[in-house]
């Protein structure tokens, strides 16, 4: 019973940390918004 | 006279690119004579410039485009020793290294050897050079490729995921296992987003040669879970005659007006068509004598007229898209 509780505790802590990183973390220099524009050759 | 060694997907596009506005004769050689005959009869009807040639006949050419599967180094050596300039589409790391080692031989014979004139490497170097002009200083180039050309390209993609990737990182070459380093890369539509991984790709070697000032260069290739799992095994499923719509994404980082700046350019086209268009346009430039080169060089090198080559490639129908911020 004690082992199960510890495993559940470890899993919940890990999920909480992963959740914080997932939603609060931000990529360094990552471009978040925008789109593609076709380049037309202007010779 | 221009000789094309290989009449597959890439060789066909090279011949088509050259036949558009070249009056000189184009010689095509392939180990499969039926394929070479089919290409010559299709293009020869219009302009009467494309003809099938034996391996020996290619020695009469002034430029040889090596559009077959790698390795190209031994073939290139033979052509250079006969004073024939060589354009290679090889995408194999060791083959590209061996080709670059022919620099002195090419200089001694006064001929040009263009290494990695394909999609990635090749087009990636052209785009990096084009983008670098909008920067004050460039220090990072990151390349991602999606898709494959003909069967030889697909086999190379398979090998790349099981090999050792090379990358330039803060002043030293680093080796990492192929298939590692997942990164979600966005290509222009209709390709979209794909997970890309490190692979044994020659781009970092060649781009670093063209841009000695760079501090970081990486190359990644898209792959599915199945590709990564089976990469260490022999290729069990035979590759298709030609891969579907491919994509190339080149990200350049550096400084502009004292600020950190990032530019991204993408290409959407079948990879073999891009490779053929690039090598064909390079051969055309060499043939017209727009640039006098002797020795081994790579696309993106300031010794080449990169902007002219890129214009020609776009003119040949390759779609290039720039990423614009919202």
Overview of the molecule:
- The complex is a heterodimer of chains A (43) and B (326).
- Chain A has 43 residues and is mainly alpha-helical.
- Chain A is 53% helix and 12% strand.
- Chain A has 1 helix and 1 strand.
- Chain A has one helix spanning 2-24, and one strand at residues 34-38.
- The mean pLDDT of chain A is 78.
- With 326 residues, chain B is an alpha/beta fold.
- Chain B has helices at 9-21, 33-47, 73-81, 93-100, 103-109, 123-132, 151-162, 203-210, 225-230, 271-288, 306-315, and strands at 2-5, 26-29, 50-52, 63-66, 85-88, 112-115, 137-146, 164-169, 172-177, 183-186, 193-198, 216-222, 245-256, 259-270, 295-298, 319-325.
- Chain B folds into 2 domains: 2-117 and 273-316, Rossmann fold; 123-272, Dihydrodipicolinate Reductase, domain 2 (2-Layer Sandwich), CATH 3.30.360.10.
- The longest helix of chain B has 18 residues, at 271-288.
- In chain B, α1 crosses α10.
- Helices cover 36% and strands 30% of the residues of chain B.
- The chains are: A mainly alpha (43), B alpha/beta (326).
- At the A-B interface, β1 of A face β14, α11 and β16 of B.
Q: What are its keywords?
A:
heterodimer, A: 43 residues, mainly alpha, B: 326 residues, alpha/beta, Rossmann fold, Dihydrodipicolinate Reductase, domain 2, 2 domains, nine-stranded mixed β-sheet, seven-stranded parallel β-sheet, 11 helices, 16 strands, 36% helix, globular
Summed up:
The complex is a heterodimer of chains A (43) and B (326). Chain A is 53% helix and 12% strand.
Helix and strand topology:
The complex is a heterodimer of chains A (43) and B (326).
Chain A: H1 2-24, E1 34-38
Chain B: E1 2-5, H1 9-21, E2 26-29, H2 33-47, E3 50-52, E4 63-66, H3 73-81, E5 85-88, H4 93-100, H5 103-109, E6 112-115, H6 123-132, E7 137-146, H7 151-162, E8 164-169, E9 172-177, E10 183-186, E11 193-198, H8 203-210, E12 216-222, H9 225-230, E13 245-256, E14 259-270, H10 271-288, E15 295-298, H11 306-315, E16 319-325
Parallel strand pairs in B: 1-2, 1-4, 2-3, 4-5, 5-6, 6-15, 7-12
Antiparallel strand pairs in B: 7-13, 8-9, 8-12, 10-11, 11-12, 13-14, 14-16
